[in-house]
């Protein structure tokens, strides 16, 4: 692999811990405004997660972990057990910010676990745990980039969906990390990105991120994806995930499921890229995942300007579930699950409770 220039490919940081506040790159207004908002308490972090100021499964877990550190500033406790009891209401409010990405609950569980054995230094323990969650995610993304890119035959075209880059993680990205690595290794010859209606993570975030790297990407309408596959210009669909179940069923941004159906029909391979923090072995299958439904107004207007007549009904689920049998490979930092099912998932991830 050519020596990877992370300084070139990995400069965007959506989350900045300031010691007394969390600064978040406001993704609602990218790419035209690159301003940060300052969250000074855990409820402000919860609101930033709910409003998609900060978004992306790993990124919302990291933000929530720092939100717990902020909540701790207002807690008086002698040890971790006392602190845990007093922090629980704030952690519940953070957990309630969004339901589908397991990373949020996973990060809060890590913070709870760190507190359980902590003594009088419990604040330092929380700070170290939040920092570890963030640095582990960055390392996982860089590792997955190399692992996933190795699956892609040189000269391939790739289609991605939503945004899974530095904006959605601690840096480098999951599916977009594989694309960055694949381009750097000259395995990926062309990148296509779906606009990802209604929030346009692809059109506003992914193509902008790649542009910062000097990586060319071609934007397509979501509705053009099947036609693109039919033309033979893509050999892989590479996407992220918000929750991967014990049988390999995967929740991801709305529109992923239909990409998987079209990919199988056209002989295009389908790769899911996510760190182990997105694997939920306690949820047996995708029908058990809560799918977030957001305000239908997100469908009825664009940047505040209505695009639909008044009085029109709209339904706005923002995730869907791709069944494991439509997935060719799940790439994690622990390795690849080929043709995922309950058995192949167990081989890499211990069943819940073990
Ligand atoms: C590596 S991000 C994973 C996942 O999160 C995104 O959802 P959202 O933009 O609503 O937070 C999208 O589903 C990505 O694939």
From TrEMBL:
Q: Some GO term, biological process aspect, for this entry: which one?
A: L-methionine salvage from methylthioadenosine
- The EC number(s) attached to this protein equal 5.3.1.23
Q: Which UniProt keywords apply?
A: Amino-acid biosynthesis, Isomerase, Methionine biosynthesis
Q: Source organism's superkingdom? A: Bacteria
Which catalytic reaction applies to this protein?
5-deoxy-alpha-D-ribose 1-phosphate = 5-deoxy-D-ribulose 1-phosphate; 5-(methylsulfanyl)-alpha-D-ribose 1-phosphate = 5-(methylsulfanyl)-D-ribulose 1-phosphate
Q: Which residues form the active site?
A: 242 (proton donor)
The entry's protein name is: Methylthioribose-1-phosphate isomerase
What organism does the record attribute this protein to? Solilutibacter oculi
Q: Which gene encodes it?
A: mtnA
């Amino acid at each position: 692999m050519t020596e990877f220039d992370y300084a070139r490919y990995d400069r965007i940081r959506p989350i900045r811990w300031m010691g007394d506040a969390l600064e978040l790159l406001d993704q609602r207004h990218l790419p035209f405004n690159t301003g940060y908002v300052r969250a000074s308490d855990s409820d402000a972090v919860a609101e930033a997660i709910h409003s998609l100021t900060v978004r992306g499964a790993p990124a919302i877990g990291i933000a929530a972990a720092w939100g717990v550190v902020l909540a701790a500033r207002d807690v008086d406790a002698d040890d971790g057990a006392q602190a845990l009891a007093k922090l629980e209401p704030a952690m519940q409010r953070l957990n309630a910010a969004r339901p589908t990405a397991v990373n949020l609950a996973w990060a809060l569980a890590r913070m709870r676990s760190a507190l359980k054995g902590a003594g009088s230094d419990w604040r330092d323990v929380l700070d170290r745990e939040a920092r570890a969650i963030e640095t582990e995610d960055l390392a996982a993304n860089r590792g997955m980039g190399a692992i996933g890119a190795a699956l892609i035959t040189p000269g391939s075209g790739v289609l991605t969906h939503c945004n899974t880059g530095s904006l959605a993680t601690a840096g480098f990205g999951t599916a977009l990390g594989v694309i960055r690595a694949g381009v750097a290794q000259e395995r990926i010859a062309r990148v296509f990105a779906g606009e990802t209606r209604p929030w346009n993570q692809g059109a506003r975030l992914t193509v902008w991120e790649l542009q910062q790297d000097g990586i060319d990407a071609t934007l397509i309408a979501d509705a053009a994806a099947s036609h693109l596959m039919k033309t033979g210009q893509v050999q892989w669909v590479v996407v992220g995930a918000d929750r991967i179940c014990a049988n390999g069923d995967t929740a991801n941004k709305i529109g992923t499921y239909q990409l998987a159906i079209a990919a199988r029909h056209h002989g295009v391979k389908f790769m899911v890229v996510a760190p182990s923090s997105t694997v939920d072995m306690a949820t047996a299958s995708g029908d058990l995942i809560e799918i977030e439904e957001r305000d239908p107004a997100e469908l009825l207007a664009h940047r505040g300007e209505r695009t639909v007549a008044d009085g029109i009904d709209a339904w706005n689920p923002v995730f869907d579930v791709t069944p494991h049998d439509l997935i060719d490979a799940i790439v994690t930092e622990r390795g690849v699950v080929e043709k995922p099912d309950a058995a192949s998932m167990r081989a890499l991830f211990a069943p819940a409770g073990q």
